Amino acid sequence: MSKIFAFSIRKDEEPYLKEWAAAHPDVEVDYTDQLLTPDTAALAKGADGVVVYQQLDYTPETLQALADQGITKMSLRNVGVDNIDMAKAKELGFEITNVPVYSPNAIAEHAVIQTARVLRQAKRMDEKMAHGDLRWAPTIGREVRDQTVGVIGTGHIGRVFMQIMEGFGAKVITYDVRKKPELEEKGYYVDSLDDLYKQADVVSLHIPATKSNYHMIDAEVIAKMKDDAVLVNVSRGPLVDTAAVAKALDDGKLFGFVMDTYEDEVGVFNEDWTDKDFPDPLLKDLIDRPNVLVTPHTAFYTTHAVRNMVVKAFDNNLALVEGQEPDTPVEVG
Ligand SMILES: NC(=O)c1ccc[n+]([C@@H]2O[C@H](COP(=O)([O-])OP(=O)(O)OC[C@H]3O[C@@H](n4cnc5c(N)ncnc54)[C@H](O)[C@@H]3O)[C@@H](O)[C@H]2O)c1
């Protein structure tokens, strides 16, 4: 009987792990809520493979601790593999999988909902209501169908975002370094980013962060956007020069900002600061603004997505354990 052991299982993941285990009575499944470290690796003793997900680094020591128990088949429940020491993983003969696509709709829907809320000045209206001010003016909304929505990146998430925006009746224009023929045929692509900035009322980022696009949205680029544009970043924090956005909001250049990913989010997001000193004044300033909607990298966090992350990771791990080709292997090295 094969055995798979899972690390750092959260309460919201548990039902899907149990569902997978019930559907695979021939596989022994065990798990812990603890992170995988050189010390906790021993919890997986006797397992043929492990299922993991953590921000913590997979250090050479951690990988060695697994390998010492004969475990070299590791399946991530998330996308990112940049915290794995790949040289050590290769040396130890690790086979690794990830879950690159778990629910593009989760992220795209969140982006659309938050954009629509900014356009309707929902946060301002909510604050007025909370204080008993039930007057309409001056909190007037903009309709989504009146907006030209500029989508940068037409991959899995960008394309769902486009579809939902079109459902509202918005005009969608796009830019991508690799144009998709089916979208090109329909005339979605503009020729350059500058064209997109010039035309778009909403600019939404759906691309990965790389060295070459660090702070691609800076003061100079914001100046090229339409007055009263809304900027949306549910992709990666480093794409946006956050201080430049704050300045553009002060100047009234931008109408609003949707931010689910922040360049300095590590160590700040997914923590409870209720009774502690808030560590980041710029972030606090953005959270307090009536025309900015900040969420702590939760666009992905839906039941649908979490289920897919768990189930796909276990499916991948079982394939590795049984010597079959997994759906989404990661290149080790
Ligand atoms: N907030 C969240 O919870 C969350 C969750 C998952 C993914 N994401 C982020 O969403 C982003 C998009 O994910 P995806 O699954 O759609 O990716 P994807 O790989 O399917 O699509 C990315 C697209 O961007 C294009 N692209 C890459 N670099 C570009 C550039 N510099 N300019 C223009 N186009 C460029 C690619 O050609 C591709 O079409 C990623 O940054 C990912 O990290 C965020």
Please give a handful of descriptors for the protein shown.
12 strands; alpha/beta; binds nicotinamide-adenine-dinucleotide; 333 residues; elongated; D-lactate dehydrogenase (NAD+) activity; six-stranded parallel β-sheet; Rossmann fold; six-stranded mixed β-sheet
CATH homologous superfamily identity of the largest domain:
NAD(P)-binding Rossmann-like Domain
Strand coverage percent: 15-25%
The tally of beta strands, per DSSP, is: 12
As a whole number of angstroms, the C-alpha radius of gyration is: 22 Å
The share of residues in helices is: 25-40%
| SSE succession | EHEEHEHEHHEHEHHEHEHEHEHE
CATH class of the largest domain: Alpha Beta
Largest sheet: 6 strands, mixed
- In the CATH hierarchy, the third-tier topology of the largest domain is known as Rossmann fold
